[in-house]
Amino acid sequence: MTVIQPNKDKGVMGLIIFFSAVLLGVSSLTIVFYSKTVNTQQDIAALTQSVQAEQVQNAELKDQLYKTTDPTNLENLAVKEGFVKVVNPQWAFVSRS
C-alpha cells in the first residue's frame, strides 16, 4: 500500500517564505533609515555652513558699529555737523516746588 503525503514539505516551505519576507522587510527598512540618516547629515552640514556665514556677517557688522561709534569718529562728525564743544557747561536746574 502506498501512502501519499503531499503536505509534508509545506511546513519547511512556509518557514523559508516567512524568513525571506522578514529579510526583505528588514533590508527595506535599513535602506530607508540609511537614506534618512544621510539626508539629515547633509541638512546639518548645510545649516552649519549657514550659521558660520551668519557669524562672519555678525562680526563684520559689529566691527562696523565699533568703528562708527569710535570717539574720534564721533568728534569728527560733530565738527562736520557744526557742533561746538562746550568746555565749562552751565547747567540750569529747575526746582519742582
Task: Give a verbal description of the structure.
With 97 residues, the protein is an all-alpha fold. It has a domain at 33-82. Helices cover 72% and strands 0% of the residues. The protein has two helices and no strands. It has helices at residues 10-68, 71-81. The longest helix is centred in the middle third of the chain and has 59 residues, at 10-68. It is rod-shaped. The model has no long low-confidence stretch (mean pLDDT 88).
Number of alpha- plus pi-helical segments: 2
Largest sheet: none
Order of helices and strands: HH
Query: How is the quaternary structure best described?
Result: single chain
N-end to C-end Cα span: 131 Å
Helical content (DSSP H or I, runs of 4+): over 70%
> What is the total tally of β strands?
0
- Classify the beta-strand content into a percent band: under 5%
Radius of gyration: 40 Å
Shape: rod-shaped
pLDDT under 50 segments (min length 5)?
A: none
Mean pLDDT: 88
Structural class: mainly alpha
